[in-house]
Amino acid sequence: MISLQSYVQGRWVAGTGDPKTLHDPATEAVLGDVRPGGVDFAAALAHAHQVGGPALRALTFPQRGELLKALSAKIHEHRDELIEIAGRNGGNTRGDAKFDLDGCTGTLAFYAHLASTLPAARHLVDGDGTQLGRTPRFWGQHILTSRPGAAVHINAFNFPAWGMGEKMACALLAGVPVLEKAGTPSAMLAHRLAQLVVDSKILPEGAFQFFAGSISGMLDLLSAQDTVAFTGSSVTGALIRGNKNLVARNVRVNIEADSINSAILGEDVETGGDTLEQFLGNVTIDMTQKAGQKCTAVRRILVPAGKVAEVAESLVERLKAVRMGNPLDGDVRMGPVASAEQLRDVRAGIQKLQAVCDTVLGGPQAVADKGYFVTPTLLKARSADAAVLHELEVFGPCASIIPYSGRVEEAIDLANRGGGGLVASVYSDDRAFVEALVAGIAPWHGRIWLGSEKTHGQALGPGAVLPGTIHGGPGRAGGGEELGGLRGLMPYLQRTAVQGDRAVVDRAFGKGQG
Ligand code: NAP
User: Which residues pair with 34 in a beta bridge?
Assistant: First the structure.
Protein backbone atom coordinates (compact mmCIF):
# COMPACT_ATOMS: atom_id res chain seq x y z
CA MET A 1 0.00 0.00 0.00
CA ILE A 2 1.57 3.25 -1.12
CA SER A 3 0.32 6.81 -0.86
CA LEU A 4 1.65 8.59 -3.93
CA GLN A 5 3.58 11.79 -3.39
CA SER A 6 4.17 14.82 -5.59
CA TYR A 7 7.62 16.15 -6.45
CA VAL A 8 7.76 19.94 -6.15
CA GLN A 9 10.51 22.46 -5.42
CA GLY A 10 13.09 19.70 -5.35
CA ARG A 11 11.42 17.43 -2.77
CA TRP A 12 8.71 14.79 -2.44
CA VAL A 13 5.55 16.05 -0.76
CA ALA A 14 2.77 13.92 0.79
CA GLY A 15 -0.77 14.53 -0.43
CA THR A 16 -3.54 15.79 1.81
CA GLY A 17 -7.32 15.49 1.70
CA ASP A 18 -9.67 12.62 0.94
CA PRO A 19 -7.81 9.70 -0.66
CA LYS A 20 -8.74 8.21 -4.02
CA THR A 21 -7.96 4.50 -3.96
CA LEU A 22 -5.78 2.87 -6.62
CA HIS A 23 -6.69 -0.67 -7.63
CA ASP A 24 -5.41 -3.63 -9.55
CA PRO A 25 -8.21 -3.67 -12.13
CA ALA A 26 -7.82 -7.42 -12.70
CA THR A 27 -8.33 -8.41 -9.05
CA GLU A 28 -9.78 -5.23 -7.50
CA ALA A 29 -7.02 -5.44 -4.85
CA VAL A 30 -6.20 -2.08 -3.27
CA LEU A 31 -2.67 -0.99 -4.15
CA GLY A 32 -2.44 2.53 -2.81
CA ASP A 33 -4.01 5.95 -2.93
CA VAL A 34 -3.70 9.50 -4.18
CA ARG A 35 -4.72 12.56 -2.19
CA PRO A 36 -5.70 15.75 -4.01
CA GLY A 37 -4.00 18.47 -1.91
CA GLY A 38 -0.70 19.23 -0.25
CA VAL A 39 1.04 21.19 -3.01
CA ASP A 40 1.76 24.92 -2.93
CA PHE A 41 0.94 25.71 -6.57
CA ALA A 42 2.35 29.24 -6.51
CA ALA A 43 5.66 28.03 -5.10
CA ALA A 44 5.88 25.18 -7.62
CA LEU A 45 5.24 27.59 -10.48
CA ALA A 46 7.82 30.05 -9.17
CA HIS A 47 10.35 27.22 -8.90
CA ALA A 48 9.78 26.34 -12.56
CA HIS A 49 9.94 29.98 -13.65
CA GLN A 50 12.94 31.02 -11.56
CA VAL A 51 15.06 27.85 -11.38
CA GLY A 52 14.12 25.32 -14.08
CA GLY A 53 13.49 27.71 -16.95
CA PRO A 54 16.75 29.66 -16.78
CA ALA A 55 18.75 26.41 -16.46
CA LEU A 56 17.14 24.91 -19.55
CA ARG A 57 17.36 28.11 -21.58
CA ALA A 58 21.09 28.31 -20.85
CA LEU A 59 21.50 25.10 -22.88
CA THR A 60 21.53 24.88 -26.67
CA PHE A 61 19.04 22.71 -28.54
CA PRO A 62 21.54 19.84 -29.03
CA GLN A 63 22.47 20.00 -25.33
CA ARG A 64 18.81 19.70 -24.37
CA GLY A 65 18.60 16.78 -26.79
CA GLU A 66 21.34 15.03 -24.80
CA LEU A 67 19.10 15.24 -21.72
CA LEU A 68 16.25 13.59 -23.64
CA LYS A 69 18.56 10.85 -24.87
CA ALA A 70 19.71 10.11 -21.32
CA LEU A 71 16.12 10.11 -20.03
CA SER A 72 15.06 7.69 -22.75
CA ALA A 73 17.92 5.32 -21.85
CA LYS A 74 17.20 5.57 -18.10
CA ILE A 75 13.52 4.72 -18.53
CA HIS A 76 14.34 1.89 -20.94
CA GLU A 77 16.74 0.39 -18.36
CA HIS A 78 13.75 -0.07 -16.04
CA ARG A 79 11.43 -1.47 -18.71
CA ASP A 80 10.67 -4.80 -17.02
CA GLU A 81 9.83 -3.22 -13.68
CA LEU A 82 7.63 -0.63 -15.41
CA ILE A 83 5.80 -3.27 -17.46
CA GLU A 84 4.94 -5.01 -14.20
CA ILE A 85 3.52 -1.80 -12.69
CA ALA A 86 1.49 -1.11 -15.84
CA GLY A 87 0.05 -4.62 -15.55
CA ARG A 88 -0.84 -4.28 -11.90
CA ASN A 89 -2.17 -0.73 -11.74
CA GLY A 90 -3.23 -0.18 -15.37
CA GLY A 91 -4.60 -3.56 -16.43
CA ASN A 92 -2.06 -3.57 -19.27
CA THR A 93 -0.92 -6.79 -20.91
CA ARG A 94 2.82 -6.98 -21.59
CA GLY A 95 2.08 -5.88 -25.15
CA ASP A 96 -0.05 -2.94 -23.99
CA ALA A 97 2.61 -1.84 -21.52
CA LYS A 98 5.36 -2.01 -24.14
CA PHE A 99 3.23 0.06 -26.51
CA ASP A 100 3.01 2.77 -23.84
CA LEU A 101 6.59 2.54 -22.53
CA ASP A 102 8.36 2.11 -25.86
CA GLY A 103 6.21 4.95 -27.19
CA CYS A 104 7.58 7.07 -24.34
CA THR A 105 11.25 6.16 -24.76
CA GLY A 106 10.97 6.13 -28.56
CA THR A 107 9.51 9.64 -28.64
CA LEU A 108 12.20 10.95 -26.26
CA ALA A 109 14.84 9.32 -28.48
CA PHE A 110 13.23 10.74 -31.64
CA TYR A 111 13.42 14.28 -30.23
CA ALA A 112 16.96 13.68 -28.97
CA HIS A 113 17.97 12.80 -32.52
CA LEU A 114 16.08 15.76 -33.97
CA ALA A 115 17.92 18.03 -31.51
CA SER A 116 21.27 16.71 -32.72
CA THR A 117 20.45 18.06 -36.19
CA LEU A 118 19.67 21.58 -34.90
CA PRO A 119 22.20 24.38 -34.63
CA ALA A 120 24.13 24.78 -31.36
CA ALA A 121 22.04 27.80 -30.46
CA ARG A 122 19.32 28.95 -28.08
CA HIS A 123 16.92 30.16 -30.75
CA LEU A 124 15.77 28.75 -34.08
CA VAL A 125 15.54 30.50 -37.41
CA ASP A 126 12.09 30.09 -38.94
CA GLY A 127 12.15 30.01 -42.73
CA ASP A 128 13.97 32.31 -45.12
CA GLY A 129 14.42 36.02 -44.57
CA THR A 130 12.49 38.43 -46.74
CA GLN A 131 13.06 41.89 -48.26
CA LEU A 132 10.80 44.46 -46.60
CA GLY A 133 12.09 47.82 -47.88
CA ARG A 134 12.77 49.41 -51.25
CA THR A 135 16.09 47.57 -51.34
CA PRO A 136 17.29 44.35 -49.68
CA ARG A 137 18.93 46.51 -47.00
CA PHE A 138 15.75 46.47 -44.89
CA TRP A 139 15.22 42.82 -44.11
CA GLY A 140 12.88 40.61 -42.08
CA GLN A 141 13.58 37.27 -40.46
CA HIS A 142 11.36 35.14 -38.25
CA ILE A 143 12.96 33.58 -35.20
CA LEU A 144 11.72 31.20 -32.51
CA THR A 145 12.74 31.67 -28.87
CA SER A 146 11.96 29.70 -25.70
CA ARG A 147 9.05 31.16 -23.74
CA PRO A 148 10.14 32.00 -20.19
CA GLY A 149 7.15 30.24 -18.65
CA ALA A 150 6.25 26.75 -17.52
CA ALA A 151 4.57 23.84 -19.30
CA VAL A 152 1.66 22.39 -17.33
CA HIS A 153 0.97 18.92 -18.69
CA ILE A 154 -2.29 17.23 -17.73
CA ASN A 155 -2.24 13.59 -18.81
CA ALA A 156 -4.97 10.98 -19.33
CA PHE A 157 -4.95 7.68 -17.43
CA ASN A 158 -4.66 5.46 -20.49
CA PHE A 159 -1.08 6.35 -21.51
CA PRO A 160 0.75 7.25 -18.30
CA ALA A 161 4.19 6.77 -19.86
CA TRP A 162 3.79 7.87 -23.47
CA GLY A 163 1.56 10.81 -22.54
CA MET A 164 4.12 12.18 -20.12
CA GLY A 165 7.13 11.35 -22.34
CA GLU A 166 5.84 12.89 -25.55
CA LYS A 167 4.83 16.14 -23.86
CA MET A 168 8.06 16.36 -21.87
CA ALA A 169 10.18 15.74 -24.97
CA CYS A 170 8.74 18.74 -26.80
CA ALA A 171 8.69 21.17 -23.88
CA LEU A 172 12.16 20.36 -22.55
CA LEU A 173 13.69 20.53 -26.02
CA ALA A 174 12.05 23.92 -26.42
CA GLY A 175 13.72 25.00 -23.15
CA VAL A 176 10.59 25.08 -20.99
CA PRO A 177 10.34 23.39 -17.55
CA VAL A 178 7.51 20.89 -17.06
CA LEU A 179 4.90 20.28 -14.35
CA GLU A 180 3.43 16.83 -14.98
CA LYS A 181 0.00 15.80 -13.70
CA ALA A 182 -0.80 12.08 -13.85
CA GLY A 183 -4.24 10.64 -14.60
CA THR A 184 -5.34 9.14 -11.28
CA PRO A 185 -6.46 5.53 -12.04
CA SER A 186 -3.02 4.53 -13.42
CA ALA A 187 -0.92 7.02 -11.46
CA MET A 188 1.44 4.39 -10.03
CA LEU A 189 3.29 4.04 -13.33
CA ALA A 190 3.57 7.79 -13.83
CA HIS A 191 4.76 8.10 -10.22
CA ARG A 192 7.49 5.49 -10.71
CA LEU A 193 8.58 7.23 -13.91
CA ALA A 194 8.76 10.49 -11.99
CA GLN A 195 10.97 8.80 -9.37
CA LEU A 196 13.29 7.59 -12.13
CA VAL A 197 13.49 11.06 -13.67
CA VAL A 198 14.21 12.66 -10.29
CA ASP A 199 16.70 10.03 -9.05
CA SER A 200 18.62 10.08 -12.32
CA LYS A 201 19.44 13.80 -11.79
CA ILE A 202 19.61 14.09 -15.58
CA LEU A 203 17.48 17.24 -15.69
CA PRO A 204 18.53 20.53 -14.13
CA GLU A 205 16.83 21.44 -10.86
CA GLY A 206 13.36 22.90 -11.41
CA ALA A 207 13.00 21.50 -14.94
CA PHE A 208 10.72 18.68 -13.79
CA GLN A 209 7.96 18.64 -11.17
CA PHE A 210 5.29 15.98 -10.73
CA PHE A 211 1.74 16.12 -9.36
CA ALA A 212 0.01 13.00 -8.16
CA GLY A 213 -3.11 14.83 -6.93
CA SER A 214 -5.27 17.59 -8.33
CA ILE A 215 -3.82 20.42 -10.40
CA SER A 216 -6.95 22.40 -11.19
CA GLY A 217 -6.06 25.21 -8.71
CA MET A 218 -2.85 25.87 -10.59
CA LEU A 219 -4.71 26.94 -13.73
CA ASP A 220 -5.85 30.10 -11.92
CA LEU A 221 -2.22 31.14 -11.39
CA LEU A 222 -0.82 30.77 -14.90
CA SER A 223 0.19 33.76 -16.98
CA ALA A 224 0.98 34.74 -20.55
CA GLN A 225 4.25 32.82 -20.99
CA ASP A 226 2.92 29.54 -19.57
CA THR A 227 1.44 26.73 -21.64
CA VAL A 228 -1.18 24.13 -20.73
CA ALA A 229 -1.16 20.89 -22.70
CA PHE A 230 -4.11 18.70 -21.77
CA THR A 231 -5.00 15.16 -22.82
CA GLY A 232 -8.28 13.65 -21.73
CA SER A 233 -11.99 13.72 -22.34
CA SER A 234 -13.66 16.50 -24.30
CA VAL A 235 -15.74 17.37 -21.22
CA THR A 236 -12.66 18.11 -19.07
CA GLY A 237 -10.98 19.74 -22.06
CA ALA A 238 -13.85 22.21 -22.41
CA LEU A 239 -13.68 22.96 -18.68
CA ILE A 240 -9.97 23.78 -18.93
CA ARG A 241 -10.34 25.83 -22.09
CA GLY A 242 -13.06 27.85 -20.37
CA ASN A 243 -10.97 28.63 -17.26
CA LYS A 244 -11.42 32.36 -16.68
CA ASN A 245 -7.79 33.06 -15.87
CA LEU A 246 -6.52 31.17 -18.92
CA VAL A 247 -8.95 33.10 -21.13
CA ALA A 248 -8.23 36.49 -19.55
CA ARG A 249 -4.46 36.14 -19.84
CA ASN A 250 -4.40 34.39 -23.22
CA VAL A 251 -2.47 31.47 -21.81
CA ARG A 252 -1.67 29.00 -24.55
CA VAL A 253 -3.82 25.89 -24.23
CA ASN A 254 -3.42 22.77 -26.34
CA ILE A 255 -6.25 20.27 -26.02
CA GLU A 256 -6.06 16.62 -27.09
CA ALA A 257 -9.49 15.17 -26.48
CA ASP A 258 -11.54 12.21 -27.57
CA SER A 259 -12.63 11.19 -31.01
CA ILE A 260 -15.10 8.81 -32.64
CA ASN A 261 -12.53 7.42 -35.08
CA SER A 262 -13.68 5.63 -38.19
CA ALA A 263 -12.21 2.82 -40.29
CA ILE A 264 -13.59 2.96 -43.83
CA LEU A 265 -13.58 -0.05 -46.12
CA GLY A 266 -13.77 0.61 -49.88
CA GLU A 267 -16.22 -1.16 -52.16
CA ASP A 268 -13.29 -2.41 -54.30
CA VAL A 269 -11.67 -4.46 -51.51
CA GLU A 270 -11.86 -8.16 -52.25
CA THR A 271 -12.03 -11.26 -50.09
CA GLY A 272 -8.66 -12.85 -49.42
CA GLY A 273 -6.58 -9.79 -50.36
CA ASP A 274 -3.96 -7.99 -48.28
CA THR A 275 -6.06 -4.84 -48.00
CA LEU A 276 -8.91 -6.69 -46.31
CA GLU A 277 -6.42 -8.53 -44.12
CA GLN A 278 -4.95 -5.23 -42.90
CA PHE A 279 -8.39 -3.82 -42.24
CA LEU A 280 -9.47 -6.83 -40.17
CA GLY A 281 -6.15 -7.00 -38.32
CA ASN A 282 -6.06 -3.31 -37.47
CA VAL A 283 -9.69 -3.17 -36.33
CA THR A 284 -9.12 -6.19 -34.07
CA ILE A 285 -5.99 -4.62 -32.56
CA ASP A 286 -7.74 -1.29 -32.01
CA MET A 287 -10.71 -2.91 -30.29
CA THR A 288 -8.61 -5.04 -27.93
CA GLN A 289 -5.24 -3.29 -27.39
CA LYS A 290 -5.35 -1.59 -23.99
CA ALA A 291 -8.89 -3.01 -23.79
CA GLY A 292 -9.96 -0.40 -26.34
CA GLN A 293 -8.79 2.49 -24.12
CA LYS A 294 -6.94 4.41 -26.83
CA CYS A 295 -7.98 7.85 -28.00
CA THR A 296 -7.12 6.67 -31.53
CA ALA A 297 -9.08 3.40 -31.38
CA VAL A 298 -11.65 2.69 -34.09
CA ARG A 299 -15.21 3.23 -32.84
CA ARG A 300 -17.07 3.27 -36.19
CA ILE A 301 -16.42 0.64 -38.85
CA LEU A 302 -17.86 1.82 -42.17
CA VAL A 303 -18.48 -1.19 -44.41
CA PRO A 304 -20.24 -1.36 -47.81
CA ALA A 305 -23.61 -3.05 -47.18
CA GLY A 306 -22.82 -6.05 -49.37
CA LYS A 307 -19.70 -6.88 -47.35
CA VAL A 308 -21.13 -6.49 -43.83
CA ALA A 309 -21.88 -10.18 -43.23
CA GLU A 310 -18.41 -11.28 -44.31
CA VAL A 311 -16.65 -8.56 -42.28
CA ALA A 312 -18.74 -9.25 -39.16
CA GLU A 313 -18.02 -12.97 -39.37
CA SER A 314 -14.27 -12.44 -39.80
CA LEU A 315 -14.08 -9.93 -36.95
CA VAL A 316 -16.02 -12.21 -34.62
CA GLU A 317 -13.61 -15.03 -35.37
CA ARG A 318 -10.61 -12.81 -34.59
CA LEU A 319 -12.10 -11.20 -31.50
CA LYS A 320 -13.05 -14.60 -30.06
CA ALA A 321 -9.42 -15.68 -30.42
CA VAL A 322 -8.22 -12.81 -28.17
CA ARG A 323 -7.61 -14.33 -24.74
CA MET A 324 -8.89 -12.08 -21.96
CA GLY A 325 -7.71 -12.37 -18.38
CA ASN A 326 -5.17 -11.21 -15.84
CA PRO A 327 -2.79 -9.08 -17.92
CA LEU A 328 0.25 -10.36 -16.06
CA ASP A 329 -0.37 -13.86 -17.47
CA GLY A 330 1.88 -14.25 -20.48
CA ASP A 331 -0.67 -15.59 -22.97
CA VAL A 332 -3.37 -13.05 -22.16
CA ARG A 333 -3.97 -10.57 -24.99
CA MET A 334 -6.58 -8.30 -23.41
CA GLY A 335 -6.85 -7.11 -19.82
CA PRO A 336 -9.60 -5.28 -17.92
CA VAL A 337 -10.49 -1.61 -18.26
CA ALA A 338 -8.61 0.60 -15.84
CA SER A 339 -11.10 1.32 -13.05
CA ALA A 340 -14.53 0.60 -11.63
CA GLU A 341 -15.64 4.00 -12.96
CA GLN A 342 -14.48 3.06 -16.46
CA LEU A 343 -16.30 -0.27 -16.22
CA ARG A 344 -19.51 1.49 -15.29
CA ASP A 345 -19.15 4.04 -18.12
CA VAL A 346 -18.29 1.40 -20.73
CA ARG A 347 -21.25 -0.79 -19.78
CA ALA A 348 -23.61 2.17 -19.86
CA GLY A 349 -22.17 3.26 -23.22
CA ILE A 350 -22.63 -0.18 -24.77
CA GLN A 351 -26.26 -0.16 -23.64
CA LYS A 352 -26.81 3.22 -25.29
CA LEU A 353 -25.35 1.92 -28.55
CA GLN A 354 -27.43 -1.27 -28.30
CA ALA A 355 -30.52 0.92 -28.50
CA VAL A 356 -29.66 1.59 -32.16
CA CYS A 357 -27.54 -1.49 -32.97
CA ASP A 358 -27.80 -5.26 -33.12
CA THR A 359 -25.25 -7.07 -30.97
CA VAL A 360 -22.92 -9.22 -33.06
CA LEU A 361 -20.59 -10.23 -30.21
CA GLY A 362 -20.24 -9.45 -26.50
CA GLY A 363 -22.27 -6.91 -24.58
CA PRO A 364 -22.27 -5.09 -21.26
CA GLN A 365 -22.89 -8.11 -19.03
CA ALA A 366 -20.39 -9.09 -16.33
CA VAL A 367 -17.83 -11.62 -17.50
CA ALA A 368 -15.90 -12.35 -14.30
CA ASP A 369 -16.55 -12.40 -10.55
CA LYS A 370 -13.66 -10.03 -9.89
CA GLY A 371 -12.01 -7.36 -11.97
CA TYR A 372 -13.15 -4.70 -14.40
CA PHE A 373 -13.45 -6.92 -17.46
CA VAL A 374 -15.53 -6.17 -20.54
CA THR A 375 -15.78 -8.71 -23.32
CA PRO A 376 -14.91 -7.47 -26.86
CA THR A 377 -18.18 -6.07 -28.14
CA LEU A 378 -19.03 -5.77 -31.82
CA LEU A 379 -22.27 -4.05 -32.74
CA LYS A 380 -24.03 -3.47 -36.06
CA ALA A 381 -25.97 -0.26 -36.62
CA ARG A 382 -29.55 -0.57 -37.83
CA SER A 383 -29.26 2.83 -39.48
CA ALA A 384 -26.22 5.02 -40.11
CA ASP A 385 -28.28 8.03 -39.10
CA ALA A 386 -28.49 7.33 -35.37
CA ALA A 387 -26.67 10.30 -33.81
CA VAL A 388 -25.34 8.31 -30.85
CA LEU A 389 -23.10 6.27 -33.19
CA HIS A 390 -21.23 9.42 -34.17
CA GLU A 391 -21.28 11.19 -30.80
CA LEU A 392 -20.68 8.68 -28.01
CA GLU A 393 -17.16 7.52 -27.22
CA VAL A 394 -17.37 4.16 -25.45
CA PHE A 395 -13.84 4.05 -24.03
CA GLY A 396 -13.45 0.29 -24.02
CA PRO A 397 -13.31 -2.77 -26.32
CA CYS A 398 -16.37 -1.83 -28.34
CA ALA A 399 -16.99 -0.71 -31.93
CA SER A 400 -19.98 -0.53 -34.28
CA ILE A 401 -20.17 -1.65 -37.88
CA ILE A 402 -22.06 0.98 -39.87
CA PRO A 403 -23.27 -0.28 -43.24
CA TYR A 404 -23.04 2.28 -46.08
CA SER A 405 -23.63 2.29 -49.82
CA GLY A 406 -19.95 2.20 -50.85
CA ARG A 407 -20.30 5.66 -52.45
CA VAL A 408 -17.49 8.05 -51.55
CA GLU A 409 -19.89 10.92 -50.82
CA GLU A 410 -21.65 8.86 -48.17
CA ALA A 411 -18.35 7.72 -46.62
CA ILE A 412 -17.25 11.37 -46.37
CA ASP A 413 -20.52 12.44 -44.81
CA LEU A 414 -20.49 9.65 -42.22
CA ALA A 415 -16.82 10.01 -41.27
CA ASN A 416 -17.25 13.76 -40.78
CA ARG A 417 -20.32 13.30 -38.57
CA GLY A 418 -17.84 12.56 -35.75
CA GLY A 419 -17.44 16.33 -35.54
CA GLY A 420 -13.62 16.27 -35.74
CA GLY A 421 -11.36 13.24 -35.36
CA LEU A 422 -7.84 12.27 -34.35
CA VAL A 423 -7.51 9.65 -37.08
CA ALA A 424 -9.52 7.99 -39.82
CA SER A 425 -8.26 4.87 -41.58
CA VAL A 426 -9.14 4.10 -45.19
CA TYR A 427 -8.72 0.69 -46.83
CA SER A 428 -8.93 0.67 -50.62
CA ASP A 429 -6.88 0.19 -53.77
CA ASP A 430 -9.19 2.40 -55.83
CA ARG A 431 -7.12 5.56 -56.13
CA ALA A 432 -10.00 7.75 -57.25
CA PHE A 433 -12.01 6.67 -54.19
CA VAL A 434 -9.06 7.28 -51.86
CA GLU A 435 -8.23 10.71 -53.34
CA ALA A 436 -11.83 11.92 -53.13
CA LEU A 437 -12.21 10.54 -49.62
CA VAL A 438 -9.00 12.17 -48.33
CA ALA A 439 -10.00 15.52 -49.86
CA GLY A 440 -13.45 15.25 -48.27
CA ILE A 441 -12.44 14.23 -44.74
CA ALA A 442 -9.03 15.97 -44.31
CA PRO A 443 -10.47 19.23 -42.90
CA TRP A 444 -12.17 17.20 -40.15
CA HIS A 445 -9.24 14.97 -39.21
CA GLY A 446 -5.73 15.41 -37.84
CA ARG A 447 -4.47 12.22 -39.44
CA ILE A 448 -5.60 9.91 -42.23
CA TRP A 449 -4.08 6.42 -42.45
CA LEU A 450 -4.27 4.76 -45.86
CA GLY A 451 -4.18 0.96 -46.10
CA SER A 452 -3.73 -0.78 -49.46
CA GLU A 453 -2.14 -3.90 -50.95
CA LYS A 454 1.20 -2.08 -51.08
CA THR A 455 1.23 -1.08 -47.40
CA HIS A 456 0.50 -4.50 -45.92
CA GLY A 457 3.11 -5.34 -43.25
CA GLN A 458 4.93 -2.04 -43.78
CA ALA A 459 3.94 -0.02 -40.75
CA LEU A 460 2.14 0.15 -37.42
CA GLY A 461 -1.62 0.56 -37.70
CA PRO A 462 -3.65 3.75 -37.35
CA GLY A 463 -3.83 3.44 -33.56
CA ALA A 464 -0.12 4.20 -33.20
CA VAL A 465 0.89 7.84 -32.80
CA LEU A 466 4.33 8.47 -34.29
CA PRO A 467 6.45 11.50 -33.38
CA GLY A 468 7.34 12.37 -36.99
CA THR A 469 3.74 13.24 -37.84
CA ILE A 470 1.21 15.28 -35.91
CA HIS A 471 -1.25 14.01 -33.33
CA GLY A 472 -4.45 15.92 -32.67
CA GLY A 473 -7.56 16.90 -34.52
CA PRO A 474 -10.15 19.63 -34.98
CA GLY A 475 -13.48 20.11 -33.21
CA ARG A 476 -14.48 17.23 -30.98
CA ALA A 477 -10.86 15.98 -30.93
CA GLY A 478 -9.88 19.13 -29.04
CA GLY A 479 -8.58 21.39 -31.81
CA GLY A 480 -4.98 20.80 -30.67
CA GLU A 481 -1.83 19.49 -32.26
CA GLU A 482 1.20 17.70 -30.79
CA LEU A 483 4.35 16.06 -32.15
CA GLY A 484 5.03 16.22 -35.91
CA GLY A 485 8.78 16.81 -35.52
CA LEU A 486 9.63 20.45 -34.82
CA ARG A 487 5.94 21.38 -34.99
CA GLY A 488 5.59 19.79 -31.54
CA LEU A 489 7.80 22.51 -30.02
CA MET A 490 5.60 25.38 -31.20
CA PRO A 491 3.36 25.65 -28.10
CA TYR A 492 6.52 26.38 -26.11
CA LEU A 493 8.29 28.78 -28.50
CA GLN A 494 7.52 32.36 -29.47
CA ARG A 495 7.76 33.31 -33.15
CA THR A 496 9.05 36.87 -33.60
CA ALA A 497 9.65 38.81 -36.80
CA VAL A 498 12.92 40.74 -36.52
CA GLN A 499 12.99 43.63 -38.99
CA GLY A 500 15.91 45.96 -39.74
CA ASP A 501 19.28 46.41 -41.42
CA ARG A 502 19.97 43.15 -43.20
CA ALA A 503 23.56 43.08 -41.98
CA VAL A 504 22.41 43.25 -38.36
CA VAL A 505 19.48 40.85 -38.77
CA ASP A 506 21.50 38.31 -40.75
CA ARG A 507 24.54 38.41 -38.49
CA ALA A 508 22.51 37.66 -35.37
CA PHE A 509 19.59 35.68 -36.70
CA GLY A 510 20.06 34.68 -40.35
CA LYS A 511 20.28 31.12 -41.64
CA GLY A 512 23.45 29.53 -40.38
CA GLN A 513 23.51 31.77 -37.31
CA GLY A 514 20.75 29.71 -35.66
P1 NAP B 1 -10.32 12.98 -18.00
O2 NAP B 1 -11.22 12.46 -16.95
O3 NAP B 1 -10.80 14.08 -18.85
O4 NAP B 1 -8.98 13.39 -17.23
C5 NAP B 1 -7.84 13.80 -17.93
C6 NAP B 1 -6.89 14.50 -16.98
O7 NAP B 1 -7.48 15.73 -16.54
C8 NAP B 1 -6.58 13.72 -15.71
O9 NAP B 1 -5.24 13.94 -15.34
C10 NAP B 1 -7.54 14.33 -14.70
O11 NAP B 1 -7.11 14.15 -13.38
C12 NAP B 1 -7.46 15.78 -15.12
N13 NAP B 1 -8.58 16.60 -14.69
C14 NAP B 1 -9.85 16.22 -14.43
N15 NAP B 1 -10.58 17.30 -14.10
C16 NAP B 1 -9.78 18.38 -14.15
C17 NAP B 1 -9.94 19.77 -13.91
N18 NAP B 1 -11.11 20.28 -13.54
N19 NAP B 1 -8.87 20.59 -14.06
C20 NAP B 1 -7.67 20.11 -14.41
N21 NAP B 1 -7.45 18.78 -14.65
C22 NAP B 1 -8.49 17.93 -14.53
O23 NAP B 1 -9.86 11.83 -19.00
P24 NAP B 1 -9.34 10.36 -18.63
O25 NAP B 1 -10.51 9.58 -18.13
O26 NAP B 1 -8.11 10.44 -17.81
O27 NAP B 1 -8.88 9.83 -20.06
C28 NAP B 1 -9.75 9.22 -20.99
C29 NAP B 1 -10.14 10.19 -22.06
O30 NAP B 1 -8.99 10.80 -22.61
C31 NAP B 1 -10.83 9.52 -23.22
O32 NAP B 1 -11.95 10.27 -23.56
C33 NAP B 1 -9.80 9.55 -24.34
O34 NAP B 1 -10.34 9.57 -25.63
C35 NAP B 1 -9.04 10.77 -24.03
N36 NAP B 1 -7.67 10.70 -24.55
C37 NAP B 1 -7.30 11.53 -25.57
C38 NAP B 1 -6.02 11.44 -26.08
C39 NAP B 1 -5.54 12.34 -27.19
O40 NAP B 1 -4.35 12.38 -27.41
N41 NAP B 1 -6.38 13.06 -27.88
C42 NAP B 1 -5.11 10.52 -25.56
C43 NAP B 1 -5.52 9.71 -24.52
C44 NAP B 1 -6.81 9.81 -24.01
P45 NAP B 1 -7.74 12.97 -12.50
O46 NAP B 1 -7.41 11.69 -13.19
O47 NAP B 1 -7.08 13.13 -11.19
O48 NAP B 1 -9.22 13.24 -12.46
Answer: 20
